[in-house]
Amino acid sequence: MSAPWDAIVIGAGFGGVGCAARLAEAGWRVLVLDKNARPGGKALGVSRAGSHYELWPIAGGPARRSRFHELARLVGVEQEALLCPDAVCEFLYLDERHGRRRSVVVPARPVADPRVVARLAYGLRLPLHRLGGALRLGAALSRLTEADLDALDATPASAWLRRHGLPRPLESFFFALLNLLFVVPVDALPASEAARMLRQLQLGGAGRYHRGGYGSLAEAAVRYVERRGGRFRGGTRVERVLVEGGRAVGVQTQHGAERAPVIISSAGLQPTVLKLVGAAHFEQDYVSYVRGLRPSWALVGVRYRLSERVFHRPMTYVFSDESWLDAARFEAARQGRWPRHPLLFVTVPALWDPALAQPPVRQVALLGGFAPAGLDDPMQREVIARLEQSARRLWPTLERSVLGRERYDARHVSRISRDAVLPGQGGECIGLGQVLGQCGRSKPSPQTPLPGLWLAGADAGASGCGTHQALDSGMLVGERLSARRTHDARREGW
Ligand SMILES: Cc1cc2nc3c(=O)[nH]c(=O)nc-3n(C[C@H](O)[C@H](O)[C@H](O)COP(=O)(O)OP(=O)(O)OC[C@H]3O[C@@H](n4cnc5c(N)ncnc54)[C@H](O)[C@@H]3O)c2cc1C
């Protein structure tokens, strides 16, 4: 008897649901399995004590013409789920040399919009004659061809940005922004990734937000897959990928086995190869390569439920000249040498979508900062304590408004997303780090050496930041697989 499914997708984060939706569109019967009860992965929606929020990711870039627009259109929720295009982000620059605070409020308009550049310059108090570097950077971004970008794969983003001679506050702004977008040190991030992303923001803006929360789009995608003959099973952990005759043929879950000719895993490259399939099914070279891949940092922090309106912008990012992170600064902090203000972001989705917070909760705010991805790394606790200390200084009414406080760290992130299978790995924010030698043309391939096994999501085959990269990867894999089948069908005269 033939398998009831054309494909099994492991994981219903954006990598998984993007792939499943594309396959369903092409007529495949797809089974989507997730260990969590609901779809969304790290963007899982949660309702608790009078408020609704997505666990972690809250907004994304680009804000226009994105893969999220494509997915929302495909699954029929364009009107209800997307988007708040006038989303606003505040950059709070702490000028420690002059003991001043500068606030720059940026709408989600394309960064190339002259009003945004003018606002940045004004907010950072930069005299016009010091804006040459910013103009050179803008011009360089619009001139770069795909070949130029590929040639930047081996150049650190920090070295490339410094070439443009940006004034110090603007350089700090870009470095801090790249830390936030890629969650890796600025000197480990390839300039190709940085330039592609900055150009995407230039053309498409940033700060895309999803009404009802990000997770609602993953849920709509799964409903679409089910309308087209597929199935979503939550609360179902894949324990093993079944291999027969040298190819992946199905999965073993706690509820039994399921079979399909194509298995797509968004459970992470390292957990998939080293745990779900097992190293014995791959050549030693591939296993060593997979073991050697570096994870991104973790984002760790606190979620506050607040009785008052403490924050006035949906997103705030706090940085100084001392707080953006390269590898040396991160290591210094690890050794106990911290800047006065750690990099800190705050997101408050109810400022976009008031329905998300019900009295007595007026705001749910997520604070985050950077730490190693290993589950028990002691630096995480230190980061969280410093974030809270900094937040209390910056928003004096915060403490008296706290109705509830939940700290989150790498262990929580791993529980919702990928398993820890190597030291220093498991709680990564994105997935594999977008670091030199691991992205651009060196990005891990979504096609594994094991026939029948593919990867989708943050670790394989796309570029860009966070959720967008994961969704792009998933949709690309879905497109590639369905095009392949059409090609095979034509060739074999089906
Ligand atoms: C604190 C935090 C804040 C973030 N903020 C942003 C943001 O604002 N904007 C942004 O763009 N990105 C943000 N990100 C990054 C973003 O969440 C990820 O890049 C993206 O969600 C990755 O999607 P994915 O599909 O690759 O993986 P995931 O979302 O991790 O999905 C993987 C899925 O696989 C499932 N799974 C794993 N193993 C198994 C198994 N054995 N059996 C069954 N199911 C399994 C998991 O349960 C999970 O649902 C943030 C991340 C964190 C942690």
List its traits.
Guanine Nucleotide Dissociation Inhibitor, domain 1; 16 helices; alpha/beta; 3 domains; seven-stranded mixed sheet; binds flavin-adenine dinucleotide; five-stranded parallel sheet
Description:
The protein is α/β, with parallel strands linked by helices and 494 residues long. The chain has three domains: 221 residues, FAD/NAD(P)-binding domain; 91 residues, Guanine Nucleotide Dissociation Inhibitor, domain 1, CATH 1.10.405; 122 residues. It contains 16 helices and 19 strands. Strand 11 and strand 12 form a beta hairpin. Helix 1 runs parallel beside helix 10 and helix 1 packs parallel to helix 16. It starts with 6 loop residues before the first strand and ends with a helix. The site of flavin-adenine dinucleotide has 38 residues, from helix 1, strand 5 and helix 16.
Q: What are the distinct ligands in this entry?
A: flavin-adenine dinucleotide
User: What is the tally of beta strands?
Assistant: 19
Structural class per helix/strand content? alpha/beta
In the CATH scheme, what's the topology name of the largest domain? FAD/NAD(P)-binding domain
Helix amount: 25-40%
Low-confidence stretches: none
Write a brief caption for the model.
The chain has 494 residues and is of the alpha/beta class.
Topology:
Elements: E1 7-10, H1 14-25, E2 30-33, E3 45-48, E4 51-54, E5 59-60, H2 67-75, H3 78-81, E6 88-95, E7 100-107, H4 114-123, H5 132-143, H6 146-151, H7 157-162, H8 168-182, H9 191-204, E8 208-209, H10 215-227, E9 231-233, E10 238-244, E11 247-253, E12 256-259, E13 262-265, H11 269-278, H12 284-292, E14 298-306, E15 315-320, H13 327-334, E16 344-347, E17 363-371, H14 379-394, E18 402-408, H15 410-416, E19 453-455, H16 466-491
Parallel strand pairs: 1-2, 1-13, 2-9, 6-15, 13-19
Antiparallel strand pairs: 3-4, 5-8, 6-7, 10-11, 11-12, 14-17, 14-18, 15-16, 16-17
Helix pairs in contact: 1-10, 1-16, 2-10
This protein binds flavin-adenine dinucleotide (FAD).
Flavin-adenine dinucleotide binds at residues 10-16, 33-36, 41-43, 56-60, 237-238, 266-267, 299, 368, 413, 417-418, 429-431, 457-458, 465-468, 470.
